[in-house]
């Protein structure tokens, strides 16, 4: 009996390919296994806070997966990684442990400068007003802070809160004193800062917060507002954007477009039914703030869920004046990928 096998019948063809040379061999392998233009998996970091609502909805409703499939990418795996600060996100991005960071635009601007443009913004996610809060009854305005006080920020010197604190200090004490309050700042994630502020015995008695943490903190009658970021600068500031490395973006044109489309769809969901979006956020994050309160936050001046980036040049100019970055962007588009250049950012 003669035995046949698929291996033996393939060998003559394989020998012919080898004799024909490597170019033909590669062509044959390419026909056998069509190349995929985009990655089959994307890893995205996210921080706690209501400004990340579109990203939370994108995860819960699998919107990136939906738009990736519609773009012909098949089943794309999206891995969401929770981090407590933009600094941690930047480290993870540079080390290759994640592909996209969802954080404040200041963290992107810092990496954009330090990598000479290798890191750029993919799209906006959201803007919310941020409040500087304190439980020190003697502090009514910035000039009242003293060495007795400690101000919690998600990242010192480079977070959106840190930059806005310096901008406020310039207005209060003069341009030469932008860093006057920096020695009082400490790095602390928002949930930990809420716990610190609630304790009269904790040395951290102030917090440059963001929704919904600031609303929760203000329920304590011992805590009051010192300033509001939107009132300070008079414009919305993107304290949540997606950003990535150029290599990832160039390798994943369809996936990048699918991610932007997913955030656009999430934003449309928020606009169409704010209460449902708030309820979905509470269910996904175990947030203690009532959904109705979150809807009220959405109505506050300076709150905006959009893929359009805001306040980029405001922060970039400050960074350059402070010599935090070496090169001053001439336009916000210098720091973002072309996929959003058609939007009215600033």
TrEMBL record:
InterPro entries recorded: TAT_signal (IPR006311)
Xref: Gene3D superfamilies: Periplasmic binding protein-like II (3.40.190.10)
Position of the signal peptide: 1-32
Keyword list, A-Z: Lipoprotein, Signal
Pfam family, one: NMT1_2
Domain of life where this protein originates: Bacteria
PANTHER family: ABC TRANSPORTER SUBSTRATE-BINDING PROTEIN (PTHR30024:SF2), ALIPHATIC SULFONATES-BINDING PROTEIN-RELATED (PTHR30024)
Official protein name in the record: NLPA lipoprotein
């Amino acid at each position: 009996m003669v035995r046949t096998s698929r291996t033996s019948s393939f060998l003559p063809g394989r020998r012919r390919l080898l004799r024909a040379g490597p170019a033909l061999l590669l062509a044959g392998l390419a026909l056998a296994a069509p190349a995929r233009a985009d990655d089959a998996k994307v890893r995205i970091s996210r921080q706690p806070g209501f400004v990340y609502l579109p990203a939370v909805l994108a995860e819960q409703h699998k919107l990136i997966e939906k738009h990736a499939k519609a773009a012909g990418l098949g089943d794309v795996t999206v891995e969401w990684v929770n981090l407590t600060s933009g600094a941690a996100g930047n480290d993870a991005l540079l080390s290759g442990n994640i592909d996209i960071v969802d954080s404040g635009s200041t963290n992107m601007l810092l990496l954009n400068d330090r990598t000479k443009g290798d890191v750029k913004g993919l799209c906006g996610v959201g803007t919310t007003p941020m409040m500087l809060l304190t439980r020190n009854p003697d502090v009514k305005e910035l000039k009242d802070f003293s060495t007795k006080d400690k101000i919690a920020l998600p990242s010192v010197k480079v977070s959106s809160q840190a930059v806005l604190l310096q901008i406020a200090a310039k207005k209060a004490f003069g341009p030469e004193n932008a860093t006057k309050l920096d020695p009082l700042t400490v790095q602390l994630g928002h949930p930990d800062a809420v716990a610190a502020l609630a304790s009269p015995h904790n040395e951290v008695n102030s917090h440059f917060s963001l929704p919904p943490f600031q609303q929760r903190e203000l329920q304590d009658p011992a805590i009051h507002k010192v300033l509001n970021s939107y009132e300070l600068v008079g414009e919305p500031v993107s304290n949540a954007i997606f950003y990535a490395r150029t290599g990832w973006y160039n390798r994943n044109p369809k996936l990048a477009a699918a991610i932007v489309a997913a955030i656009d769809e999430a934003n449309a969901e928020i606009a169409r039914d704010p209460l449902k979006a708030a309820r979905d956020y509470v269910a996904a994050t175990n947030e203690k703030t009532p959904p109705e309160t979150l809807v009220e936050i959405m109505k506050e001046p300076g709150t905006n869920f959009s893929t359009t980036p805001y306040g980029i040049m405001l922060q970039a100019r400050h960074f350059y004046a402070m010599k935090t970055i070496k090169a001053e962007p001439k336009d916000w588009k210098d720091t973002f990928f072309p996929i959003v250049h058609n939007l009215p950012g600033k």
